[in-house]
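Can anyone check this?
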Amino acid sequence: MSLPIIIDTDPGQDDAVAILLALASPEFEVLGITAVAGNVPLALTEVNARKICELAGQSDIKVYSGAIRPMLRPLVTAEHVHGRTGLDGPVLPEPTMPLQQQHAVDFIVETLMERPAGTVALCTLGPLTNIGLALVREPRIASRIKRIVAMGGGFFEGGNTTPAAEFNIYVDPQAARLVFDAGIPITLIPLDCTHQALTTRARVEKFRKMTNKSGPAVAELLDFFERFDEQKYGTDGGPLHDPCVIAWLLKPELFTSRDVNVSIECESELTMGMTVIDWWRVTERKANATVCRGIDADGFFALMAERIAKLR
């Protein structure tokens, strides 16, 4: 039986690849895609989500527009990484599929309250604003979520937006704190894990040589996306963050992890958005997340290539 999922996202080239991986995987029933402001403003992320659905030939997927800004702080975006549109690289046509009228937060709450408890998983690829707002609107959803699988944070690897903070958590640390304090089963995939999943030239070429539309589009997305991190880290290729969320649900055996406490810093401007991960269990704080630290990168890219080759 397929797993019902909601993908909460701020596309983003790596978000786009994650969405394609999910749409190519029969293990999932994608109930909807909810857009949030993050990598680029909301007016672009909701368009980008629909562009990706149409690229995959799945214009029947429902896309909802969500939070236009973080809960308390001004919006921080990342056009310097993702380009002006968020999906710079391939030329993708403007979407013709409609945006749903319902607000993303209402859709999340309604879906979780109507579906049997413990059946719907949330795949969060961007700032956690929509999920935080949904928890404020209807706290009972916390006990109904099967699991949240989130890309975000970092510990030994540090941050990628400030020395202490990774982008998704930094953009809306208050929402992240709400989510991590809610008692929901969470798998966190931080930079420590995603920085091992590098889009090397050889890995990208596999997508470029595919005879469908989606494979070469993925190669063009990654060509643009990786340029920033290649300069920054001096690596062959850049880390591919968000598809790790979908891969964990498909093949958790690709990852190594530990159940530990994750707390979110919301007071200090110096370390705002830091994920304080008690990896060595030096506090008495109760474990509230499964934190991934390692990934079989070859297995991960093989899974992606196998699935995306099946799209149109």
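Reply from J.R.: I decoded it. The first strand starts at residue 3 and ends at 9.
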